[in-house]
Design a protein that fits this description.
- The radius of gyration is 24 Å and the shape is globular.
- β14 (213-217), α6 and β15 form a beta-alpha-beta unit.
- 27% of the residues lie in helices and 21% in strands.
- By secondary structure, it is an alpha/beta fold.
- It folds into 2 domains: 3-255 and 471-527, Ribonuclease Z/Hydroxyacylglutathione hydrolase-like (Metallo-beta-lactamase, Chain A, 4-Layer Sandwich); 261-462, Metallo-hydrolase/oxidoreductase (Rossmann fold), CATH 3.40.50.
- It contains 15 helices and 26 strands.
Length: 528
């Protein structure tokens, strides 16, 4: 009885691991079954080679992946058109599926490269998130739920040939939905998913029955969000269960962090006191954070102004998990001017204006603008940049870096304005460069207050205002989780992954474990 485990991402060596890009192959020789856990894009690794102005063509990713080791060298799992482009014929499926823990890019980003007929197992919320993400951008960019075939040639109407285009080129991915605590199979593996607390909807941990005993996989996990009880229940199940191996992520053990999601709204509300223009950046698909910011806006007498993509997400989730409804009077939708700047210009035709926007954005064009719909009416309200410019103390505006220059130039923030970061600080060189550029923009518009203490940890200095609670355990929480599992399973073997410094486990947080296996990227671990 042998279970082979190979980390293609989410691991490094004993000293230095990898924060994200989880790609783990499980092959059970007794069960004669195999599957991948996650297929994430490795952000640290990718940034070492690519960035503006050069990005590789999408169909070149597979060849570059082989050369740079960005994705597993598993013949037969990648999409037909990309394999055809590099002269390969697609072989039989070498694995029986991909198990997706949650829809963050460092766990799901590689789905775009995977062939459409390879089964992918995910939660319903994950599928919805990935579908919305895919359909709020360029058709060929994030092909999470559908694959857009780029190289199939078919006859045209005049006796020649053409590439497949439009809906003809769209191939539906084989997605299979799992549900909380309902066991399912990938091949001969029996898998039970458990919902856990994390920063994005649809995050799950697992208990997997293998020929060498039960294997628990934490996925990304915390207990300081809005649903800590889910994490507590999972750890209790592991404590009571018969667990032979425990794969535990340790993303953020390398620095102290505290606070909880329910306090984020109060913290932002405190920073908004006495301010005029207020802008904030946060992860666009994390609706727990958006919920906290709606609470902050309500408390401070403002309206949270969100993007059209976020508005469609709220409408699709429709109050799930306590998320706000899109028709809340404390939410407005921003449709900024695009390349021709025609919106709200009566001299141009509606048809011409509509063509300046994606189809999924156009549903908000005819919404009543802020100030005209009346506070008592529950209607989706559209907010214009000129509304923000003329009423700067009435809004809290979602402002990601890629929109900052255009938005600030049109709003012209007044004295006393503030910009808040509500997402993690930079952890790669590329992100640090981006932060410097943001600070330069803020300085030019009088919105930079200099380095600030972290709102939940005053001893930690940030380069700007930051109110953020992570989606992961801190050191003490990780240690407590390990000890709880060990109390019920004294002989459990711990396998840390998805962490910057794997040695923290054997040398500190997992000292009570009898055995800790630190995975090495690309090397096969043999479990018996």
């Amino acid at each position: 009885m042998v279970l082979e485990v190979t980390f293609f991402g989410g691991a490094g060596d004993y000293e230095h691991g990898e924060l994200g890009g989880v790609q783990v192959l499980f092959n059970d020789l007794e069960l004669r079954s195999s599957f991948m856990l996650d297929i994430g894009k490795r952000p640290d690794h990718f940034g070492q080679y690519f960035g503006f102005p050069y990005r590789p063509k999408s169909y070149d990713y597979l060849s570059l992946s082989d050369f740079l080791g960005m994705y597993p060298k598993l013949s037969g799992i990648y999409r037909y058109d990309y394999e055809l482009h590099r002269g390969n014929k697609t072989s039989h499926l070498p694995i029986e599926g991909i198990l997706l823990s949650h829809p963050h890019f460092d766990h799901a980003g590689g789905l775009t490269l995977v062939r459409h007929d390879l089964p992918v197992f995910m939660s319903r919320e994950s599928k919805l998130t990935l579908y919305l993400w895919q359909n709020s951008g360029a058709r060929t960019l994030n092909q999470f739920v559908d694959v857009y075939d780029q190289f199939t040639i078919v006859p045209n109407s005049v006796g020649g040939e053409k590439f497949l285009l439009g809906d003809e080129a769209s191939l539906s991915r084989d997605i299979r939905i799992y549900e909380d605590q309902k066991q399912f199979n990938i091949g001969n593996f029996k898998i039970t998913p458990y919902r856990v607390d994390h920063s994005i909807a649809g995050s799950y941990a697992f208990v997997i029955e293998t020929s060498v005993g039960n294997l628990a996989i934490s996925g990304d996990i915390r207990q300081r969000g809005r649903f800590p009880e889910f994490t507590h229940y999972y750890l209790e199940m592991l404590h009571k269960g018969n667990i032979k191996y425990f794969m535990l992520e340790g993303s953020l053990l390398h620095f102290e962090h505290s606070g909880n999601e329910k306090k984020v709204g109060a913290a932002v509300s405190e920073l908004l006191k006495g301010r005029t223009m207020a802008a904030i950046a946060y992860p666009p698909r994390e609706y727990e954070r958006l919920t906290s910011l709606v609470e902050a806006s309500k408390e401070s007498g403002r309206m949270l102004v969100i993007s059209a993509a976020q508005a469609i997400g709220l409408r699709s989730f429709d109050g799930l998990n306590g998320y706000p409804k899109i028709d809340s009077k404390h939410i407005g939708v921003l449709l900024p001017r695009k390349r021709k700047g025609l919106i709200d210009r009566p001299e141009f035709s509606e048809d011409l204006i509509e063509r300046d926007y994606f189809a999924w954005e156009r549903q908000f064009l005819d919404r009543e603008t802020w100030g005209k719909s009346g506070e008592a009416k529950r209607k989706v309200q559209r907010v214009r940049l000129q509304d923000i410019r003329d009423n700067q103390d009435k809004f809290l505006v979602y402002m990601p870096f890629n929109s900052m220059l255009d938005m600030l130039g049109e709003i012209n923030p007044r004295k006393g304005s503030i910009y808040i970061r509500s997402h993690p600080g930079p952890w790669t060189t590329e992100m640090e460069i981006s932060e410097t550029r943001q600070i330069n923009f803020l300085k030019e518009h009088g919105m930079y207050d200099g380095p600030q203490p972290d709102f939940f940890d005053e001893e930690t200095k940030r380069k700007m205002h930051q109110v953020h609670v992570t989606g992961h355990f801190n050191r003490n929480e990780c240690r407590a989780a390990i000890n709880k599992v060990i109390e019920g399973n004294p002989d459990v073997t711990l396998i840390p992954y998805h962490c910057m410094y794997p040695k923290d486990f054997p040398e500190d947080v997992a000292k009570r474990a009898k055995k800790v296996i630190v995975p090495m990227r690309g090397e096969k671990i043999i479990l018996t």
